[in-house]
Amino acid sequence: MGVSLADTELDDDADFAETHDINVTPFIDVILVLLIIFMVAAPLSTVDLPIDLPSSTATPQKKPDKPTYVSIKPDLSLAIGEKSVKRAELISTLNAAAESNPERLVFVRADRGVAYGDLMDVLELLRQGNYRMKLVALEGVADASTPSPTSGAARP
After folding, report:
1. Secondary structure element (H or E) that encloses residue 15, with its range
2. Residue 89: helix, strand or coil by DSSP?
3. What is the pTM of this model?
4. Closest CA relative to residue 74, chosen from 112, 40, 104
5. CA atoms of 4 and 48, how far apart (whole Å)
6. For 57, 67, 102, 123, which has the most beta carbons within 10 A of its beta carbon?
7. Tell me, what DSSP letter sits at residue 108?
8. Taking a C-beta distance cutoff of 8 angstroms, is the pair 96, 104 a contact?
């Protein structure tokens, strides 16, 4: 209990008045100790159940020997591998090379400056050609001096 030493009366016989304030220093110490205990104990409380998972007889999918990459350049022109193609000839060029890609899997990569709508247009072209696609990379750094193409830009 705390005691106030303030002079309430001038006589010496007066008892010290009690104060009814809580001492928060030990309370804060206890809270901090509990916090440390919970911070240490929380990672230990994860559940590790020993489960014997069934084995799979499926053969793992192999990566294609020579994957087909469709690239979208910053000027919205398309390329298959290193060869530039026109947007209207994309599916016919991919179909001509279909013997090397029997799964019809195409990896699509786009420059950072390519707008989302333009990327989706190319993905829609590939979907209409019944190609499966995977987005694999975004390349290039958008430069402040060159304006990025918009979805309303002229397409080659």
Report:
1. none
2. helix
3. 0.48
4. 112
5. 56
6. 123
7. E
8. no
